[in-house]
């Protein structure tokens, strides 16, 4: 199958005083990758999904391998390792222009529905249509 791939330039907003990416910014970059995947590849933009549903991160494992510096272009890759009834285990990797891994890891996302008052959530199975779209990214 295939990976979902996006590129991102390391900007001043991402770095600390030493000129390298401050680690919480990597989590924001990862969230952007997930959001882009849902909109561009799965045809489920957050702007529509979050009217009734969500896809929160429930588990995250990350290893930082190399520093990323101001001005570098990072290639962000995401793929599906395991698809369950209402959750997805995804692998991810960010590489720099020299093809060195900057970070890698796994993220578990759960499909949830909001109750009508929006004060509670519960896991909700993916539709068969959504499962078929997600399966295109299994490696």
The run of helices and strands is EHHEEEEEEEH
Global Rg: 16 Å
Number of strands: 8
Shape: globular
The percent range for strand residues is: 35-45%
| Proportion of helical residues | 10-25%
Mean pLDDT across all residues, rounded? 96
Contiguous runs where pLDDT drops below 50 for at least 5 residues: none
Structural class: alpha+beta
Strand order of the largest sheet: 1-4-5-6-3
Distance between the termini: 6 Å
Summed up, the helix count is 3
Note the main sheet: 5 strands, antiparallel
Protein name: Acyl-CoA thioesterase
Organism: Flavobacterium proteolyticum
Pfam families: 4HBT_2 (PF13279)
What's the arrangement of secondary structure elements?
Layout: E1 4-9, H1 23-41, H2 46-49, E2 53-54, E3 57-64, E4 73-83, E5 87-95, E6 101-110, E7 112-114, E8 121-123, H3 128-135
């Amino acid at each position: 199958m295939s990976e979902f791939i996006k590129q991102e330039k390391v900007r001043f907003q991402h770095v600390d005083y030493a000129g390298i990416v401050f680690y919480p910014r990597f989590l924001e970059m990862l969230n952007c990758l997930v959001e882009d995947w849902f909109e561009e590849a799965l045809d489920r933009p957050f702007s529509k999904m979050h009217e009734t549903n969500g896809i929160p991160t429930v588990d995250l494992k990350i290893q930082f391998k190399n520093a990323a510096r101001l001005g570098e272009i990072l290639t962000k890759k995401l793929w599906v390792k395991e698809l369950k009834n209402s959750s997805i285990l995804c692998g991810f990797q960010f590489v720099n222009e020299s093809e060195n891994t900057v970070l890698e890891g796994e993220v578990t996302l759960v499909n949830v529905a909001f109750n009508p008052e929006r004060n509670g959530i519960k896991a909700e199975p993916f539709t068969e249509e959504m499962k078929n779209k997600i399966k295109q990214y299994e490696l």
